[in-house]
UDP-glucose 4-epimerase (Amycolatopsis thermoflava), 326 residues
Amino acid sequence: MRVLVMGGTRFVGVAAVEALLEQGHQVTVFHRGSRRPRWSAPVGEVLGDRTVRDDLMPLAALDIDAVLDLSAYTRAQTALLLDVLPAVPHVVHASTINVYRPSPLLPWPEDTPYGPHPLWGRYAVEKIGCEQELRSARPAPLRTVAVRMPLVLGPRNFIPREEFVLNRLLDGATILLPGDGQAVHQYIHLTHAADALARAVTTTTTPGFTAYNVASPRCITSLEGFVQICAEVAGVPATVRTVGGGPTGLDRPVFDQRDCVFPFTNENTVADLGAAREAGLLSPFLDLREMVDGALRALRDEPERRRWERTAAERLAMDRTSVGTP
């Protein structure tokens, strides 16, 4: 197939393009030109800003069978792309389980009502908007798939997750946990996310809009459990301290991953994977310890990533709880 990938030059995107190439597809990547990954086979490139119509117009001349959209973060971005490419037979949208209205009944199936999830602010609102635009603009027989994923793990993530925890553990610093640190989260490894997105391009053939929850099988643990696994892999003791403050640790209504007490919220977030399993979108089991080990090895290979400092949120949480923590 001839596949257009929107984004695709960092983290999951790089791996997703590689997965498409390994499946034998012809791939063209639309990106801004700030990064040039090395892939295993030739890849076509169109450079531009997806928020600028004139930059998108060259895509209308491409002969493509499918679009894999990895960089749609607002409804307007989705709408503009669909206006330029109104009749592509198949579109796969990289989405998130944070489009759901939180429910105490776990796990959440795909028919869980839309939120927005309050903790994820405008991000959740806009990702819902992306899906709603796809639903309204692409009726059957056009095929549209939303792959809803939880927190993505993997080495060299541009959002420090394992790295956030590992750096503190390796330097003997106390890990602060929001709330009681016992909420459970579901995760997906970088390679599992990439493979699922690539498979969704070719193996999902239902007309209209279809959503699938996709995560790494049996990859669920609490915040404290995640810290303990990181400590086990790193071979160091873990010192943790709960700071209360609700799901964010500071009673903030919206989680800010750039300034957080801990990289995950203390709120249960688990999706049902039954539909994705039946559709063949799930990867074989990979132990969470192996995922963390890969991140640890990458961290040790790049000394510059070992430099860190407490976030403003951590310092505030320590001040609020009178914790004299290094």
In short: Residues 150 and 272 are 11 Å apart (CA to CA). DSSP finds ten helices and twelve strands in the chain. The domain at 2-153+186-213 is CATH 3.40.50.720 (Rossmann fold). The first helix runs from residue 12 to 22.
